[in-house]
Amino acid sequence: MESMSDEDDAAGLPVILLVEDNPDDVLLVRRAVKKAALPVSLQVVADGDEAVAYLDGGAQYGDRERHPLPDLVLLDLKLPKRSGLEVLRWARSQRGLDATPVVVLTSSGEDEDIQKAYTLGANSYLQKPVAFNGLVQLLSVLDLYWFRNNLTAPPAAAGASY
After folding, report:
1. What is the spatial distance between Cα 13 and Cα 26, in angstroms, rounded to a whole number?
2. Which residues, other chains included, contact 69 with Cβ-Cβ below 8 Å and sequence gap of 6+?
3. pLDDT per residue rounded down to tens, the chain (162 residues)
4. Please, are residues 97 and 91 in contact by the beta-carbon 8 Å criterion?
5. Residues 2/44, Cβ–Cβ less than 8 Å
6. CA spacing 20 to 30 A to 80: which of 46, 74, 115, 149?
């Protein structure tokens, strides 16, 4: 698991958990976040089991100062150990995570993957842009929508039943 910014610099910034097994894609996302000058703390895990451990606060992720719960999850579908769809299913079954925005960011444009992701509770499904500038633009739009304009339920109320 890697962090984009120093802990002191990350205080108060929105946290994005990037779940991505391809190191080249992780590097591209890091560069795009930097180029877009997004004020976020980027946490990275490389497989589905690690994503669940991070979100659950298990093992090395128990310190929420160092590994805060994300404000947004960017989730690849094709992951080792546990697929992105399995991670999504698990997250949506967890009180406290059920309202955390999950954006699928994957190379797959298959109708079946899109349908399954939305059925399991994805908030958005985005295909990875081919060009770097497209990724910069996409991340800028995500920042604008999820962190500047979108209103979310407070964490305590997120899992409440009405």
Report:
1. 20
2. 15, 55, 96, 97, 100, 155
3. 444 443 444 568 899 999 999 999 999 999 999 999 898 999 999 999 999 999 999 889 999 989 999 999 999 999 999 999 999 999 999 988 888 999 999 998 999 999 999 999 999 999 999 899 898 989 988 888 888 877 676 654 444 444
4. yes
5. yes
6. 115
Please report, as a single letter, which amino acid is at residue 137. Q
73, two tokens: 């999850």
In DSSP terms, 106 is beta-bridged to 127
**Environment class of residue 41 by beta-carbon count within 10 Å: exposed (0-12), middle (13-18) or buried (19+)?**
buried
- Structural element, H or E, at residue 33: helix 23-35
